[in-house]
Amino acid sequence: MAIALKQRKHLSARTATRMRRAARGRKRISGTADRPRLVVTRSSRHIVAQLVDDGDGRTLASASSMEADLRALDGDKTTKAKRVGELLADRAKVAGIETVVFDRAGNRYHGRVAALAAGAREGGLTF
Question: Does the CA dihedral 93-94-96-101 come out positive or negative?
Answer without folding.
Answer: negative
